[in-house]
Fold these 2 entries.
Entry 1:
Amino acid sequence: MHKWFSLIQLFVVCGLVMGCGSSPESDTSDGASATSTNAGITIALLPKLKGISYFTSCAEGAKQAADELDNVELIYNGPTTASADKQAQMIDKWRLQGVDVIAVAANDPAVVSESLRKAQDAGITVITWDADAQAADRSFFVNQATAAAIGGGMVDVMANDLGGLDAAGDVAIISATATAANQNEWMQHMKTKLQSYPNLKLVATKFPGEDQNAAFQDSQDLIKKFPNLKGIFGISSVSFPGAAEAVKQAEKTGEILVTGLSTPKDMQPYVKGGEVKTVVLWNTLDLGYLTVYAAAAIRSGTLKPGATEFTAGRLGKKQISGDQILLGDVLLFTKDNIDQFDF
Amino acid sequence: MSDMSDPMITIENLSRSYGGVQALSQISLDILPGEVHGLCGENGAGKSTLIKCLTGVVPPNTGTITVEGKPLSSGDIHAAEEAGIAVIYQESTAFLDLDLVDNLFVGREIQKFGLLDRRAMETQAQAVMRRLDLTLDLHTPLQEFSIAERQMVEMARACLRDCKLLIMDEPTASLSARETKTLLGLANQLREAGVSVLYISHRLEEIFQLCDRVTVLRDGKLVCTTSIDQLDRNQLIGQMVGREVNSLTRCEEREGQNNEVRAKIIGLSSHGQFSEVSFEVQVGEILGIGGLVGAGRSEVARAIFGADRYDEGEIQIDGISLKKGSIRAAMDAGIAMVPEDRQHQGLILPMTVSENLSLAILSEIMKHCLLNDGTENERVKQLIQHLAIKAASTKMEAASLSGGNQQKVVLGKWLAIKPRFLILDEPTRGVDVGAKAEIHRLIRELTAAGMATLIVTSDLPELLALSDRIQVMCEGRIAGEIDGASATEEQVMRLAFPRGEEQPI
Amino acid sequence: MKKFAYEFVLLGLIGVVLASAAILDPLFLSQNVQLELSSEIWELGLLTLGMTLIIITAGIDLSVGSAMGLCSVSLGLCMHANLPAWLCGLVCLLTGLAAGAINGTLVAFIKVHPLLVTLATYGMYRGFAEGLQSATTNAPVDASDGIKSIVTGGFPVIPVLFTALAVWTAILLRRTAAGRGLYAIGHNEEAARFSGIPVARLKFLIYTYTGLLAALAAICYSARRSATAEAGMVLELDVISAVVVGGTSIYGGRGRLIGTLLGVLLIHETRQFVDWYWQRSELTLIVIGTLLILAVLGHRFLFSRNPQTQ
Amino acid sequence: MKFRREGSLLVLVVLLSLLAMLFDSSFVPDNALDILINGIPTMIIACGVMLVIVTGEIDISVGSLLGLLAAMLGLLSSTVSPGLSVHPYLAILIVLTVGTLIGLGTGCLVVFGKVPSIIATLGLLIALDGVQDWLMGGGDIKHFPQQLRNLGTGTRIPVNLIIAVLVVIGTGLLCRKMAMGRRIYAVGSNPSAARVAGISEAKIKLFVFALTGLLTALAAILWVAKLGNVSTSTGAGLELKVVTCVVVGGVAIRGGRGHLLGVVLAVILITMIRTVLNFMDLGSEAVKWQRAIEGVMILVAVTSDHFTQQQQTGGSA
């Protein structure tokens, strides 16, 4: 008997240590327990996944906003891989913990739908940002760009860098897994857009998954297989740097252009190096900032359905079109301006 | 050679206990240089504990061991090795995946600049092989050697280490008579080279053949150490068990010849293992299969039981032909088999005695699709009584039983299905004399009660004592049949050796 | 009582987790929250039933999560084609059965090491799930009303089904010849075969059973989320962890279903609470990984038999 | 036949190359070097994991460990925030040390804690993945000093390939030519006999786990050097790839048997599957099945050999 008790004691001690360890954590914005606040608005911000610069910079912007709005407490947590299922689990927990607003960048509208609906039923304000869910499952979408704009934008940028309407040559797409919902949607729009550039031919689409080495290998193989390859779209956070690095190492810098979605900080070496001419993105800091402002405004009732604009702190007035709050212009980062952005 | 009066090894007042059980108490023993010293005793008499103390695997509680006058630090495997004590275990300790040279040198490789010096090792290996008069290929993985050859490799390994005392723990348990002879010859060579040998065997004839002196242990105590000339076989057994046992004399002849055939084996062949094996076993009859290890005896037994597939032939039980390669079908036909390897095939050591005993009759102790504890306990109790299994509780693990009792559990498991045809493969290997006699008695009783029995054994006295008829196998074929009552060891051996290879004794 | 000593330790650990929760955030323990969070436990629980049997025979199945994904996609295809719910369910179950049977055949009859078989099928089943989904619907499929009614209907189908299966599996293990055979196989396969136990058949059946359970888990999952190739991703790690934390020996021959169930509960509550309170996905991983190692260390430390005392 | 498995793997490699050459006649000269280079991390770690498996244990934590060590290297040597701009050689030294120590820790859990290696490393697989994410905080780590990148790219000589070849040769020497190697095989072949032969099982196992940690650190360094980027997904799933290569290479999972040559061929085979499929005109639909095709090929590689092996050894087990 004695031995078991000693083990149980050990675990009690561990438990207590864990408990004590929590207090410093709760000071930070992303470690707070939601339930302790009564006053103010608790906003839970859910990215598609944690651990990539894109969402980390969004979270930074969100934190700035939360600091400015002194009645807002911000929770930032997300899955470690782009898993819609894990997102749904988190939404469920937040509902049970009784947060005021849940702001979701949905990995997959279908998978999170049920959880979002339940959250709304429980009186929680649900908005989406970055990637929309089904329209009925949320009140507003903080729209930095639609899937069509993102997909089309990448093609336009590529075509523009390759010589505008006359752009000619082979292009290829390196995606994530074959089932990644966002990427699949973007690809749909990319293919549509590519039709306006008759001389650009999409020769291959690859699905290296979340594997950096595989993304590199796929790009490397495509470069060799298609001598006329002029452009690669790296449309995930893993495949974009993988493709750029492959071009660099194949010594095709300047001959083959890479583009995709990325934060300027992440792609700065490749933009400087010339593998990437233009990166499409919006100001992610502002996206997080706007999302939190919108969330607070919707919750406190100052922003109601039907409004056409609202004021978001340092961003000033922002347009609202239907149920979509528009962030504004897409940014194009090039060699010349990339150093000016710090995110 | 040193003066014969100086002992090579001196053991003084050695005691060792395991959790309250005194495994060895106050053992004192000398082993002289160039002597083959026999160590006898029933299982559990303390032989293996003595070996473990000598080799430093366990430290003794009290007592000292000195090698050539120098005390040996206790419980230190390396010190024992350094002092020149080497062991050949009952179960081969060869590395089957490594080749012969690697096996000889593993643990004490010859190195040059941190790399293996293959050439030096090969040279030494060749030298030792020549010395022992062995012709084995140096680069063949041990897997491809026979068990006897592996034992010889172990002896070569011991020689290579310049050993002073070689402990041989049941080295011949799984060897055929011819291989045993070679091995004993090797031991003799070592003796002549001045090496002391501590020889442990249940085969008393080997003790008499080989040893100069013999020490008998019983219940952890030393009974006597005497010159072998002063004992005869029965006296030695008497010293071991504390009474005289005469297990290996033939019992009265089978009464009333019953000619009903229980099992009929017709032209059984399996590629590379045995071919065209045919024989019959009658009700109430014990049929022995003799022959050398590797002659295909166990393989035939396994094929009959459905444990292995065979290519051609037929097995009939009571005239009905048996599905091949299915143990279930064999069991349904009433065949039971006590396999060769008790630890790996016969028993499930970590399971309880009760679970082991009921393993073959699970379907019988089911009630409404569930196992019934009551029925199980009852059946188990009956079996334990019937076989006189010595177990403190039916809930203890089979692993904690002695070898003899373990073998009785295996036998009990099969008797539980009330077999009509019992196959025994080496039923008394590593079993002490007392338990052996009991197992023999049981086999006789059950057979007389209407069972047919097939026994495969390398133990010639056992074969001769038990069998009503003997089939001798040689190189996968039946070489001949001998009547059990009149058979002699020479007759069996003459048939067992391949033609042209037979050697005068 | 001594027999269930380890189970009491597990109960104690669950107690510690719940007690920590009570101190740090009592809301976590409220009936409503626990009930809601429990929706995730059933899939884990179902898969551990089969995994316990497999690990008791000294085997392992790394492919359960992938098989679940494949089943979910097959269910999704059927629902996409507007087939009736029972037919969708049937196809899903058959898919699971087939996935399990492939593992079972290779392990039991071809005698390939289970780690190798399921390592290969782990990638293969997930590959097929992803391929199938992206080649057809190209998106997860919402559960049809028929399938959804499993969770939304008033009757708690899944908990009842799980309880029934758990009881059945426990009885199978403890009280039937097949169960005794599984333990025997785990301890010593050769001796089990020589005792007339149908080793190959039993092994085939447990892998197939596990495949079937993966299909059931896929139905549960798809009913509450949607039918997707993502279903069961990395779940195999939790399943194996729960079984091992529950006291089943990875070397085979030892383990009880009650331990597994407590293991499931411990893993579930720990994961949920760490997720709930600290809101750090990476911390959850660290805690679960450490828990697994500590549990096995603790089991060794407390219950390893000392051969010298025998 | 001693090298039967190696022979059949070689045949498969040749067949795959021929298949690819149907689509691109200069496939082999164009891609051989790249395939070898792409297989480097798998190859280096496989050398360690192979030895672990030969001793009868297994290590499935290498993927997470590689990720963690890559993140650590990133944090130490990256020239921009959150990197500490430690001198790259010092960073490399630290990472190699930490890798070895973690490997040694795993070994201690297995040897002294008596935790079954598959469970100990499963726990580490989960926990180290968490530690990696926690260390990285959020966001890829880039901007590595050129000295570090030179190990993977940038110069005419493929330094990383030379290092990998040296590791393979070293492991080969260890296996064939050194006492330690013989003892590793001895422990896996027959542990109790090894004990009797005076070999310390504990020491051997600690050594192979520590070596695997060291090699994983080396692989992490070359990974970062080549790709110049560490993300939270770095290393994910690599453990399965490595174990697959080792067993496809003919190393017996029960220990004691297997040749390095087989593992080398298996790494080449499994690395080239992806490239070969990339060179075949799969079309936009078929490409979605690429992972499934890879899975089937691995299943075939793992089992097909078993069919023939079973025939060869007959029924005797």
Entry 2:
Amino acid sequence: MNFILDHYNYWITIILMMAGFYIVISANNLVKKIVGLNVFQVSVFLLYITMGKVSGGTAPIVVDGATQYSNPLPHVLILTAIVVGVATTAVGLALIVRIKGAYGTVEENEFKDQDDAI
Amino acid sequence: MAELINLVLLAMLALTALRIIFLKDLFAVIMLFGIFSFLSALIFINLDAVDVAFTEASVGAGISTVLMLGTLALTGRKEKANSHSSFLPLVVVCITGAALIYGTLDMPDFGDPDNPVHQHVAPRYIEESPKEVGLPNMVTSVLASYRGFDTLGEVVVVFAALIAVLSLLSIRKETEQDASESGLKSHHVLHVVAKLVIPLIILFALYVQFHGDFGPGGGFQAGVIAAAALILYALVFGLPNAFAVIGAKFLYCMASAGVLLYASVGLFSMYKGGNFLDYNKIAAEPLAGQHYGIIIIELGVGITVFAVMLSIFYAFSSQTARSNIK
Amino acid sequence: MNLWQNVEPSQLITLSILVPLIGALLVILTGKIPNLREAITLVTATILFSIVLAITDFTFQGEDMHIQVIELFPGLDISFEVEPLGVLFALVASFLWIITSIYAIGYMRGHNEQNQTRFFCCFALAISSVMAICFSGNLLTLFIFYEVLTFSTYPLVTHAGNDAAKKGGRIYLGILLSTSIAFLLLAVLGTYSLTGTLDFRAGGIFDDSHNKVILGGLLVLFCYGIGKAAIMPFHRWLPAAMVAPTPVSALLHAVAVVKAGVFSILKIVIYIFGLEELKTLATTDIMLYIGAATILLSSCIAMTKDNLKARLAYSTVSQLSYIVVGALLASSVASAGAALHIATHAVGKITLFFCAGAIMVASHKKNISEMVGLGRKMPITMVAFAIGAISIIGLPPMAGTWSKWYLTIGALEADKLFIVATLMVSSLLNIAYLLPIPIKAFFNTSSGEQKPWSWADTKEAPLPMLIALSVTSLACFVLFFYPQPLIDLINLIPGVSTEVEMTNNLNGDG
Amino acid sequence: MLFLDVISSILLISGVFFGLSGAIGIFKFPDFFTRIHAASITDSIATILIVGGLLLQTSFDLNTVKLIFILVFLMITSPTASHALAKSARHGGLLTMAEAKEKKQEKTG
Amino acid sequence: MLEQHLAALPILIPLLAAPITFILGRSWFTWLFATSTSALACFFSWHLLAAALSDGVLSYALGGWPPPWGIELRVDTANAFVLLAVSTLSTLVLVYAKDSIEKEIEASKHSLFYTAHLLCLAGLSGMLLTGDAFNLFVFLEVSSLATYTLVSLASDRRCLTAAFRYLVMGTIGATFILIGVGMLYMMTGTLNMLDLASRIDVYESSRTINTGMAFIIVGVSIKLALFPLHMWLPPAYTYAPSAVSAFLASTATKVAVYVMIRFIFTVFEVEHVFEEMRMDLILMVLAIVAIFKSSYTAIVQSNVKTVLAYSSVAQIGYMILGLSLVSVTGLMASFIHIFNHALMKGALFMAVGAVFYRVGSVDIKAFRGLGKQMPLTMAAFTIAGLSIIGVPLTVGFISKWYLVTAALEQNHWVIAALVLAGSLLAVVYIGRVIEAAYFQEPTESQAHNKIKEVPWLMLTPMWVLVLANIYFGVDTSLTTEAANAASEWLFQNTEMATTRQEVIK
């Protein structure tokens, strides 16, 4: 039981990751793919933050009287990763806008058909 | 108590994610994603990651969602029925998931202070950084000083995103008669409130920017918040007016300048005989050097993030405007 | 005789490779002036021959000649070394290059061929790489220039540029390149990983410590990897390459390229495996029988061909396997015979090709059935053809006699009666497919009354061609009566010498 | 202090109640305008009550000031957002339930 | 002063130059600036390789913080060698790009192209030199974002879908790496690669670490387009502008291969990955399937750029095969092939780009008769093509030689034979193009408008690469020495890590 409680966080995180991953590879609509990608990434962020938590610790900002702080390193890494994620999202969305303009659709199978037709 | 909140939030997160899979209405999908982001920000707070929560709320839930909605305006909000089989993706996902679950079996217990992750590198950050870097916010110390090179890379990623978006979507100034069309012209209440709120937002952005050393916040969050202020302006008063306030060309220069400002701190420390980004060498006193260095690079980060986020918004919304005219 | 006394002997190797290369460059530069271009070709060929003669001289003097050019891999370099077998091949190739150049001038002009500059340039390049193969000091060098030779002759094969030429070129390159990459390179690397060296060494680099099964596999890989030796079933490229202009077929596909193949096999057998080691391998016999089968089968195919060049091509396939068989008999006499056959078959077959080209230029006939009565209009050509044919068959007083003689003795010595029988049957087949051609040309009595075509406007071929084919047919005679220098040279090959002397005595008695 | 705690609890509980009712309203109400009515209750009264409750929990330091700022900010922005939504809906030609009924009657009549 | 910062300069120079290039806007000077910056980076990477060859390992602590607390740049022979290939190719491609992009990219986007190119160079250099697992992820994303930009700059609309597919797959790969790094960090508490190596206790094999390793390997495999995760590569290379294809094909995947080698050999112990988890078998099988399947696919394509793209997937198979042989020679073969393949593919894509510049199409039909019309370009294509096939006196032969030697060292005769058989397939797909160029008549429309040779600014870099193909195929001392030092260093590294562990304890 303890084992389950101790790993509950990880498992939910993994379920989230897999939900996101599934959306990415199964979705036909490009916007949804990007949403899936974001869900996937945010879940990975959760994994990192989860491992940085110390029970009974506080946020890693020096406060008088606090003895135990959570690990600041995962926070730093994820700050970086979040920004990287939004950068990727922006590029992906810009591509979608252009694809819509060029093909008239953002459904993967439809523009594949158009390409094959050429 | 915290554990319980955590459990509930995680469960809500899982529900949201599963709902996203099955919804066909893309607008709802994006809204759910915004909720997902906010929920995860809450979890981050609960797990003591205040800086991350701040960033996730402003960047993940804020800018990402805005951009997605902007895209949606151009591409249509219904997902068509999926024709191809979803069997293979399911298998792939199951295998990946099984691998991950297998990986968790040896993972250390959640929150245990004896975990290896808290042992080796982190203690120095926690114990020494207030002395070595002189900032109470350890996240900022690590971000800007110990791992300053990562952060430089991160700014460059943002800059690269700008290059990518510009190469895909060009920003064009609308002509005068189009200007009357755009914006929420008839919303007088909005106009008034926006005028009231925008200065406050910018003030808040500045607070976040310069208070990042002491509390949660820093260049990223500040840049995004400041960009949000101008995005609000552009939404309410129309894109042409926003261009009049800050033109695209100027933003490009700002984006480059931010990166260069960051890097120039590194170069200056090289000039002073230290390694790249060695703030100790910037000033006579190492602590003062750390302080100057961090303030300047955070400023660089803020400038670049602000300029890039706003330019990306410009790029998307000028596409929308053009398609509306058509 | 030796014009190159002042040159360091080892530098002669460099010169022998560089001279044709420089010749090729000059040919390109003077491409606009045909007379000058062809003069350069001739001069280059003559210089090369004199260099090779000098090298021969030094070889007889027992001079040790070797150079290292560059280290390609640690401990493995591109190096050249003179040894008697290579000298023999170099002599043949460089001498025949002069003749072929003379012939080619007549042929190319008589035929009004396109792209003559490219032709002469590639020709010189091919000779250059043949020289490099002759003097290669290790297997790596041999392999590299083997490939260079393939590529430099490809433009010659596809010279005509029409569909047939392209098809031929594709088969040519396809077979030679694939076999060399898939089998030969593997065999070379296998040898390297087994022994840690690729140097040619007297008595071979393998010894009893190596796994026999692997060595047997390597032998098969070598035999098939050297596709230029045209062992069945990888012989298809040779008939296909006959689309090339006749001088190319003559020099390259009767002498330089195919001989480079069998020369490589011979060299590998003698210097890599060693004759003693070869005897112990199981696959030697298998390859021997495949070689014998190639001899017989291709002779049979040759009989069915009406196109003269195709018939000659299959004849070449058959004759090449003589040399392969000679090498694989693993007897020193047979090896000597095989080495000698390189020279004797070369002069014989080149004569036949010259004649085929002369007939084509003069009468535009390609098929044997159309050559009835041609002997009266082109007596010199057809006489030369007869001489070449007799030499190939191996009847005295032509050069081919000696090599077949030694091969047969070698087979007897190795107790391979089956091979002896094969050689005999093959000689009969040679008679059957070669002799009818001159006979019909001179003595066509049967179809005398009805002549669907007239020979009225047919004259002898251009003078340069006649000179060339006379010289080579003369060489067939000369080599019968005066084979001693070549035999002496062969005697110098380690592991081959003693037995040859013995047979010499035998020969003298007979 | 007990007194403050009690008041704060009352404020928080009632805030949660309004928030919950607003959420239920969003689901249960039939059309856009009624739903936005429910939503704006969550936005305005629920937040005011909750932030007010929290204010009483603080010890009147920097956090109090921050909460007051948040309160003011929310009081400005939430109604504006609801207003903008509703106005856009009107602008886009969406009818209230009553109007829709009227129109229907006109058509049938 | 520069000596001291040698390790950081190849990253910093393009990184700083990129924003400046962006501001400079569209002018002739932008090109000059970008090219000379890249040349400068190339110059320093030469120095870096020389320094690494003489001094061994160079460590540069960024921010003055000692590793593992700060980020470390760690230069050894291996990454200096790959870096040299990357920066040289970048410079040559930039020279080539000036004229090439005139026809393929809108004029208003030229400065964006140069900026993205420099960013990509900076990202790739960062990936190579960094000694920090998370920093690797950051630079991976820098290079990836720049790459998506570069691919999407072409005028053909299909480049958009190609770039999108690349983006999705690339991000999945990067996220997998992130998961893997996270798991490693969770079990060790450090991110520095060397430190990780010393703290991963392989004997007490932990399931979390094994999973983390698997995720990193899969993530990198996506980036390096290991079969069957290569689906993004062919469309991306086909529809990208030619200069971009030339740069990416010759560098981007190679850097990923290096990252894989680095993780397997320096972070996880070799014995652990290969002997306990039998990763080598999986990689070997995948590599061989990649060689044959992709070569076969290349044969049936009609677009020459697609042919070359599939050929790249096959060639990556050779590199992975080399490393899966787990020997110094095998690893050396991989390194040499990384370098050599950059030379060949660069030249090939440049030649194809030159054809596009003049003819406006890269279909195999467009190549008909070009042997006469564009002799220099097609000669370059032919020589580089022979190099891909592995003909002696070209670099391809050297790679193949070492690879087969490595296979035979361990008595893998079948693999040796398969490698050589694989190059036969290369004969076919390269041969098709060459045959079209030299032995087929031009199509009617092409015969009419006289096709000339491309400008010298395009020919020069192409021929520099072609000559390099021959030079390094004859004088192999530089490549062999560097690759040998690199692979030996990587094999010794395991010992180094253990000694270091003792010191820390």
